[in-house]
Amino acid sequence: MRDRAVAGGRCKEAAITKRCSGFYKIFCFIDIDWQFKTMPQNHTGFALVNKLNDELEINAFLYLPDKVGGGSAGSVVASRLSEEPCVTVLLLEAGAKKPPLLNDVPGLGRFFWGTDIDWQFKTVPQKNTGFALVNKQVPWPSGKGLGGSSLLNAMLYVRGNRKDYDNWAALGAKGWSYKDVFPYFLKLEDNRDFGYSLNGYHASGGPITAEKPGYHPEIKNRILEAAEQLGYRVVDSNAARQTGFHDLQGNLRNGQRCNTAKAYLVPVENRTNLDIIGGAHVKKVVFEGSRAVGVQFDYKNSEYLVKARREVIMSAGTTNTAQLLMLSGIGPKKHLQKFNVKCQYIFNLSALKVK
Ligand SMILES: Cc1cc2nc3c(=O)[nH]c(=O)nc-3n(C[C@H](O)[C@H](O)[C@H](O)COP(=O)(O)OP(=O)(O)OC[C@H]3O[C@@H](n4cnc5c(N)ncnc54)[C@H](O)[C@@H]3O)c2cc1C
């Protein structure tokens, strides 16, 4: 705790320096065993954490960003933000901090669907599919735990199509053109297959490893040869052309799954300005007026409120981010009214610009 108090003091000092004047840095901080009472207030004093059920009030430490969801996106953002010593980050993840050891085995990813590291969502009953499923409800796997869906995805290392990025940019998503995102593809990558580093589209030394699976079935080369004989190209789908046959690379490291927590959080887990709480299920974003000032979450059968001095960042995945926003009163008015959720902010879907 002492280290953290010191870090908090440093943060306040640093806040007035030019380097940190971006102000994206103030978040409330919690420790996993709630020892905040011992935190000297004069080192922090920026935020309070209230344990709602028993009215216990704890002086807490200050964070810069308060993050919800330690999945693929959350792991990256928490790691990058906490590179700045003056930024304190609290990362709240509903699932466990570590997946079972067998999760490292790439071929077993599918077997984790429907387990504790999956939210176990199902679609509503379908009209035209799911005939063999109970109620025609199709499983909708979504990772739960540090690393998020990268704990149970297929690990295919595919960047996406250049044209999609350029279209987004043309629609107003500034900074999302292929040219803009390409340097970040290089920055994140540690390509372990020699030939790939030569075509100008790959890099090494980044946190996310990419390599071909170690298993090469005999038929693979035959298929690629046949494709070439038929006039198809064998391509690197992350380079200049995507159409063709390709010998895939995966997000693998020495043959094991390289989930995003492994890539971005494990190497920095000892940073004193980054706190990660597993098993913290965020229920609501708390607002003061139209400003998000903290989150309410369940942890070990108690309910807590943590206030962020600067920012609340949501990265709870496609489904849960939308759900959490609605639970917080942000969403289509009619839908919120149906479930008696008080509207904080009503948006008109057609006018909504998604960043
Ligand atoms: C079955 C499957 C196969 C896929 N295959 C590939 C592939 O081969 N290649 C590829 O590039 N992509 C693949 N994807 C897609 C890729 O995994 C996702 O796009 C990516 O992981 C999404 O990242 P995210 O950060 O948005 O969400 P997630 O990684 O899902 O992270 C969300 C995190 O938020 C946490 N969370 C949610 N709600 C709360 C809450 N209320 N409180 C606290 N924490 C919360 C979750 O537990 C989770 O850890 C696949 C996805 C799936 C599901």
From TrEMBL:
It holds the Pfam family GMC_oxred_N. It comes from Araneus ventricosus. The keyword Flavoprotein applies. Belongs to the GMC oxidoreductase family. The gene is Gld_34. This is Glucose dehydrogenase [FAD, quinone]. Residues 143-166 form the Glucose-methanol-choline oxidoreductase N-terminal domain. InterPro entries: FAD/NAD-bd_sf, GMC_OxRdtase, GMC_OxRdtase_N. One of its GO terms (molecular function) is flavin adenine dinucleotide binding. It comes from the Eukaryota. The keyword Ribonucleoprotein does not apply. PANTHER family: GLUCOSE DEHYDROGENASE [FAD, QUINONE]-LIKE PROTEIN, GLUCOSE-METHANOL-CHOLINE GMC OXIDOREDUCTASE. Keywords: FAD, Flavoprotein.
